[in-house]
Amino acid sequence: MSKQSLLALPFLLVACTSTPDTADTLAREAAKSVVSGVVATRFPGLDVAPVTDCIIDNASSSEILTIARAALTGPDARTTETIVAIAQRPETVRCIAQNGFDVFL
Questions:
Q1: pTM attached to this predicted model
Q2: Residue 69: which of 85, 83, 58, 57 has the closest Cα?
Q3: How far apart, in whole angstroms, are the C-alpha atoms of residue 87 and residue 104?
Q4: Taking a C-beta distance cutoff of 8 angstroms, is the pair 56, 91 a contact?
Q5: Contact at 8 Å (CB) between 67 and 35?
Q6: In sequence order, what DSSP letters do the residues of 21-50 get, joined into one string?
């Protein structure tokens, strides 16, 4: 069994026995870890938590799942493109600005 398979095993076990709300929470938390890493890499020294929350809050369910998969496999160019696209949406930009981040403006 590969290392990635072993890492995925707890997520799969929980997903099989969990409610939809629990599965959504797990996916969002996994996606947050990926988004935080991408934001930290692109903007070193920035407090990534509020930016990450804005990106996650403005992502669709399918985008959350796509990003969450990268928690197991590592982010690739597609993952980064998805995160950047969400970050550029007007609703996300407003969220970031409302949380005190004029870095992007």
A1: 0.75
A2: 83
A3: 10
A4: no
A5: yes
A6: HHHHHHHHHHHHHHHHHHHHHHSTTS-HHH
Q: Whole-angstrom Cα distance, residue 72 to residue 38?
A: 15
* Residue 101 buriedness (CB in 10 A; 0-12 / 13-18 / 19+): middle
The Cα 27–Cα 7 span in angstroms is 14
Separation CA 80–CA 47 (nearest Å)? 18
pLDDT tens digits, residue range 19-66? 556 778 889 999 999 999 999 998 888 889 999 999 999 999 999 999
Question: Is the distance from CB of 82 to CB of 18 less than 8 angstroms?
Answer: no
Count CA atoms closer than 13 A to 10's CA, side-chain side. 7
